[in-house]
Design goal:
It is a multi-pass membrane protein. The protein is an alpha+beta fold and 464 residues long. Helices cover 46% and strands 22% of the residues. It folds into 4 domains: 2-19 and 96-125 and 338-463, no CATH class; 33-94, no CATH class; 142-222, Roll (Pdz3 Domain); 234-314, Pdz3 Domain (Roll), CATH 2.30.42.10. The chain contains 13 helices and 16 strands. Mean pLDDT is 87; it is low at 459-464.
């Protein structure tokens, strides 16, 4: 059922993105007076079609769902001799170079507009985000050496306000890829001063960050993690588990281990895992009563390492949340900025991959997109719409790359035509098409390889 759900979510995502992209080409072609013969959702053999309008444009669904196209009246495909003289003014190649540029660029622009529209809706509605508050920071980490501490609340990055954890991570990733240091404004609790909090400016060095490490997350590179709820609450027990035998009950709160206060659920799990077959003294709160219990974690093998386990499920360690929201005008401006920033970041990453400064593992294909589509759709409509916006931006950026057979390749031809005052010779165009097909096949091969490597654990879970 999960696989079917993921496939359906992927097809819905792809259908929306391809329809919007191709409709951009279609509507601008119509505005420019070009006759549109077919609008196809999907590639290959047409399985269903209907004709509408004065031009009897064929609206079709084709057998291969990966893509789509708008077929216009084009002498390069049909031959000028096969086009009626009355129709020639509406033929694509008869249009000015500026009209052809507008028609070709309309597809990627439509994807960017879709992202702006979706982000505007999300920001007006409100997006729940974890607060940008820091968890335990290892004293050997870059972040700790820079001066960040447990419980710090990030308020700005390089002078730009941060409303949530995702926005904080995004701004840090942008700075890391650019190789620039980040200046963070943090709010820190201090009971020694009036009001209990103070504001501190901290410079975090990022110049040594290698963009190849983006896969591992720049915040992990710095030693930063999201703060979680400090409550450690026991839920369901396994039969004959060490926790049950020790007398612990559902709903018990663990306050301390060995007279050391716990920071959160992760802290408790780490302590238990580090002490297989060793007795631990717990301070427990049960309703209004507090008392101590001694429990000995059982030993269990995990990836070749012996760890301690108590055989009890813990209540999810949820972070403190904030609703990121804006009025319509602010939401629109923020959406434009986010779409622009994401596009520029994507281009920078592509540039770094071409120069060998970033890993080719960042290239993903339909399998990974289908996996993410399924995950985000299960998380709710807000998360799913955000995912569609991100993929729409990626589709727009990819299609603008100056690779023949993509929209960007055609724009390259037309830009050269503007510069030299005449269209490129057919042999140069044909040579470019061959190069473009080769490059696309190479990218697809890398994408599928990365997909398979990335999703091996996913398929393993399905088979287990």
């Amino acid at each position: 059922m999960i696989v079917l759900h993921d496939i359906l979510a992927f097809l819905v995502t792809l259908g929306i993105l391809v329809t919007i992209h191709e409709f951009g080409h279609y509507i601008v072609a119509r505005w420019c007076g070009v006759k549109v013969l077919r609008f196809s959702l999907g590639m290959g053999k047409v399985v269903y079609s209907r004709r509408f309008g004065k031009d009897q444009t064929e609206w079709a669904i084709s057998i291969l769902p990966l893509g789509g196209y708008v077929k216009m009246l084009d002498a390069r495909e049909m031959g000028a001799e096969n086009i009626a003289a009355s129709e020639l003014p509406r033929e694509f190649c008869q249009q000015s170079v500026w009209k052809r540029i507008a028609i070709v660029s309309a597809g990627p622009i439509a994807n960017f507009l879709l992202a702006i529209f979706l982000y505007t809706i999300l920001f007006v509605h409100g997006v729940p985000e974890p607060v940008a508050k820091l968890r335990v920071i290892p004293d050997t980490s870059i972040a700790y050496q820079a001066g960040l501490r447990y419980g710090d609340l990030i308020t700005t990055v390089n002078g730009e306000q941060v409303q949530g954890w995702t926005e904080f991570r995004w701004k840090m990733m942008q700075a890391g890829v650019a190789g620039a240091n980040s200046v963070l404004e943090v709010q820190r609790f201090d009971d020694a001063i009036q009001g209990g909090t103070k504001h501190i400016s901290i410079s975090v060095p990022l110049k040594q960050f290698n963009a190849k490490d983006v896969d591992s997350d720049i915040l992990n590179y710095l030693g930063l993690n999201l703060a979680r709820s400090r409550e450690v609450v026991l839920k369901r027990f396994l039969p004959e588990s060490p926790a049950l035998r020790a007398g612990l009950q559902e709903g018990d709160r663990i306050l301390e281990v060995g007279q050391k206060p716990l920071l959160d659920v992760i802290d408790f799990i780490q302590v238990v895992n580090a002490n297989p077959a060793k007795p631990l003294k717990l301070l427990v709160q049960r309703k209004q009563e507090k008392f101590e219990i001694e429990v000995t974690p059982a030993s269990q093998d995990a990836n070749g390492k012996t760890v301690g386990v108590l055989g009890v499920e813990l209540q999810a360690a949820l972070p403190e949340m904030v609703m990121v929201q804006a009025n319509p005008l602010q939401a629109f401006v923020k959406s434009v900025e986010k779409t622009w920033d994401t596009s520029i970041f994507s281009l920078k990453m592509i540039g770094k991959m071409l120069t060998g400064n970033a890993s080719l593992k960042h290239i993903t294909g339909p399998l990974t997109i289908a996996d993410y589509a399924g995950q985000t759709s299960r998380s709710g409509l807000i998360t799913y719409l955000g995912f569609i916006a991100v993929i729409s931006i990626s589709l727009g950026v990819m299609n603008l790359l100056p690779i023949p057979v993509l929209d960007g390749g055609h724009l390259l031809y037309y830009s050269l035509e503007v510069l030299i005052g005449k269209p490129l010779q057919d042999r140069y165009v044909e040579m470019g098409q061959r190069i473009g097909v080769f490059l696309l096949l190479m990218m697809m091969a890398i994408a599928f390889f990365n997909d398979i490597v990335r999703l091996i654990p996913y398929f393993g879970r399905l088979m287990s």
